[in-house]
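lol ok so funny story. i was supposed to be doing the assay writeup but got distracted and ended up predicting the structure for this chain instead. priorities right. anyway since i did it might as well share w the group, maybe its usefull for someone
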Amino acid sequence: MARTSKKRRVAPGLWQLEKDKFEFRVKARSSKTGLVGSRWQQFDGTKAEALIEREKVRAELAANEPVKVQSRETVESFARSWMSTGLALRRWSPSTVDRYTTALDQHILNTVGLDGQIRPALGQMILARLEKADVVAWFKAEAERWQATSCNGWLRVLVSLLNDAVGDKLIARNVAALVKPIPEDEHPDDGDNTFEPEELGAIIEEWRRRCALVWPDAPEYLHPRFHGRHRRDLKVQGFLIVLAAAVTGMRWGEVTALQPADLDKAEREGALLVRRAHYRGQLKGTKGRRRRSVPWPHALSELFREYRRWMVAVEHPGIAAGYLFTTEKGTLLVNGSLSKEWRDVLKAVGIERRVTFHGLRHTMVDLLRQAGVDSFIRQSIVGHESDAMQRRYSKVRPDEARAAGEQALRLIPGGVHSGVHRGEDAEARRHDMAQEAK
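and the output, tada:
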């Protein structure tokens, strides 16, 4: 839900929404229960009047009656009400609303498995009966499949949700706040989520070797009744997905949402129009809601033509679904579908550090910069809106930094440049000086 105006903080806990309209948040500890309650409220009037009203609300919270538990309120029903109230009060930015909605619908109230199936999580539990053990069990199950950063983010959403439930006197304590987050430095990657060009070439070749399309020594892989169809399909699809991401810089959700019609136009123009993506099987626009064109080389077109013929030969369910990459049930491949194969390939080519699939996009940005591609074109291809995002995705190699420093020093007249170089150049300079003296 888009905001019609931007609120501005004018005092601690007090925001101005527009002229003579304010929003405040109050926290107070009840003198009867010892519990901390909170309340968001809007007020029409002057700033001074809003501050007076805030103190009245604080006094009401401090004098509140003991908690009254609504025994039949479920986590899901309260979450829906919580989101509706937040939207009505314009409490969150549109990006926060998207993040909260995804966390609740696909990880907290329900959970979406790697097979795309939705299963209940905490949503159907009675809110007043939710225990720490329930949250711990849910959190451990998510942590087994997702990265620590993502899981911790979902836990923070649950903590915020239950904080307001405590403030509304629906529960006595926030059990989610008692759960420890996962240490996020458990799998350090030294901040380098990028491949060297040689590493990227080795990865593509390893995927190519595993792919049935270009593995003539294993024709049985092309047989529709080959055992282990799901793993076979992932070998084939994985190669095409990785190759497309490496060449175009597309995100996972963009590559796996491709349709045959997208490729027909790309073959004619040599560029692919990226206009859709999906998250956990739900279609949406691209990040930033902007369409963009990415390079689509002729060699890539040929491989995808062969891939589409293979889909017909094995009667792949993606044909009926209308997508190039699907599960054996015809649902879109979710992020994490290639996790096992991805780890196996990195291990096979000798890469021991942790690099994610998104590292292919980082690498593409880096290669475009090293190739001297114009900054505006780079941003257009990868969909970045600023140079700051380009700098975040790209890294400067030591040899590039050294060469840049040497080029800069050469522009400085006088003895600065000559004083930097030593070793092999010292003898040459002495020889030149001796010649000048003669």
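The beta strands are 8-11, 14-18, 21-29, 36-44, 110-112, 118-120, 271-274, 277-279, 282-284, 292-295. The chain has four domains: 8-62, 75-178, 197-381, 400-437.
back to the writeup now i swear
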